[in-house]
Amino acid sequence: MNHNLLSILIPAFLAGMLVLSTHVILGREVLKRGIIFIDLAIAQIAALGVVVASAYLHQASGWVIQLAAVGHALLAAILLQWTDKHWPQKQEAIIGCLFVLAASVSLLILASQPHGQEHLHDLLAGQILWVNTFDLIPVALIYAAVIAIWFSLPLWAQQQGFYILFAIVITVAVQLVGVYLVFASLIMPALVTTRLRIAYLIGGIGYILGLLLSTVLDLPAGALIVCTLALVSIGAGFLHRACLSRLCTR
Predict the structure, then answer these.
(1) Which residues are CB-contacts of 158 (< 8 A; sequence separation ≥ 6)?
(2) Mind listing the pLDDT tens digit for each residue in 131-178?
(3) Which among 11, 36, 51, 144 is least surrounded, fewest beta carbons within 10 Å?
(4) 110 pLDDT above the threshold of 70
(5) How many CA atoms lie within 13 Å of 77's alpha carbon, on the beta-carbon side?
(6) Rg of the chain's alpha carbons, rounded to an integer?
């Protein structure tokens, strides 16, 4: 493997590990709450913020676009925190409605843009192979702060602060790896196990395989990583069941 290829794959892999560092933790909480599609909704709303800033704020800088994405995601988080208190039994339906509404508005805005379809593809599938090490520094700082808050203030983080922290984490990840990988990283490892080390291992193997196969097969990295994450998660699930069966028969 030549140096040029490594200079692409290593930052992409590090980006994946950063995403997993928070998503594995939050994924367990999402499954516990039974709000599986909250990440898709928040991710799509954050993407809507990017679309709005790109379409209507001409020549907007990266920070302006980032603020627009965070602003949209935080407004959605505040709304969902309110609906969770008042209509908890309808929370999943509300989340689904927000997702499809944000996706539809994004499509309407991008329909008049010359490169709208390309922009939408980048937001959904991501451009993980175009990540550079410099891009990861602010992400690492933000995620380190979120992890510190999660473990140092667990009651606040898992109750009042959950939606706010979730919105920040997802907004950053969407622009790093795309909507599809955000969902896969959050849910797939958490579906297999509640043990953090195993979940991180599943995610890491999925990202490594996806990145390597994308270079060999010349296929989109984001979509391929989603597929390898699914395959590794399924394999780990079967292996876990087989181990349990052997222990039960002893």
Answers:
(1) 29, 150
(2) 888 889 999 999 999 999 999 999 998 888 899 999 999 988 988 898
(3) 144
(4) yes
(5) 22
(6) 18
